[in-house]
Amino acid sequence: MLRILLVEDEENIRDTVKLNFELEGFEVVTAEDGRKALKHASEQHFDVMVVDVMLPEVSGFQVVEQIRLTNRDTPIIFLTAKDQAQDRIQGLKKGADDYLTKPFVFEELLLRINRLIERTSKSPEVRPELFTFGENRVNFATYEATGNQGVFTLTKKEAMLLKLLTERRGEVVSRQQILQSVWGYDVYPSTRTIDNFILSFRKYFEQDPKVPTHFLSVRGVGYKFVE
User: Fold this and answer.
1) Alpha-carbon separation of residue 223 from 67, 92, 145, 147 (angstroms)
2) Measured in whole angstroms, how far is the alpha carbon of residue 62 from the centre of its chain?
3) Which residue, 85, 152, 203, 205, is most buried by CB atoms nearer than 10 A?
4) Distance (Å, rounded) from C-alpha 165 to C-alpha 163?
């Protein structure tokens, strides 16, 4: 039985869609806000996720962005009333595979989900998530990296922070966004912790850690990764 995570704050829509999925043979786990969605996603396996954008606690965009730091494989479709082109573009940039606007016909949602699942199941192999910049190389699937110190292993938090920065390369990522995306929404470390991680990245990957060219500080805001 395929499992769906359905994240929707409107009770009537959530109950109706859940019932229809169950009639189609899916096992459905629901969440009415972003925090619960992140908790379910981190603790359970799902074959597909259906996520509303405008959620209490944590927005759907933030939910998907955080999920994609550690899970690139599970298909995700946004189901939302936000129907502007820039909203769809932002949703896809955050890591969603599809985007369906409300009001919608359930048959269309079901068709899109089945196609996403079929496409995922046909993948012959999972390719390692490799990222290279300069003479450096990072495998986000195994946390193995190559840099100034040769081959070494990143911690999970280091890999998550590095992935966040590299996926948003050229953009300034605030300390608050880093804390929310990497450390979660319940317990925040001090911002000094982030500074120490960036210092480690410079030591790992910069030709001259004192004059960084990849991991740049933006005073009063956060950090930016540049290739």
Assistant:
1) 21, 23, 21, 20
2) 8
3) 205
4) 6
Residues 8-28 as b/e (b if ≥16 CB within 10 A, e otherwise) read bbeeebbeebbeebeeeebeb
Count Cα neighbours of 24 within 13 Å in the Cβ-side half-sphere.
18
Task: Report the C-alpha gap between 215 and 219 in whole angstroms.
Answer: 13
Q: How many residues does the chain have?
A: 227
Helix, coil or strand: residue 208: coil
| pTM, to two decimals | 0.70
Mean pLDDT along residues 211-219: 93
Longest dimension (CA), the chain: 60
Cα–Cα distance measured from residue 155 to residue 217, given in angstroms and rounded to the nearest whole number: 22
Give the alpha-carbon dihedral of 122, 124, 130, 131, to 10 degrees. Answer: -40
Walk me through the domains of the chain, giving residue ranges and CATH numbers.
3-121 (3.40.50.2300), 130-225 (1.10.10.10)
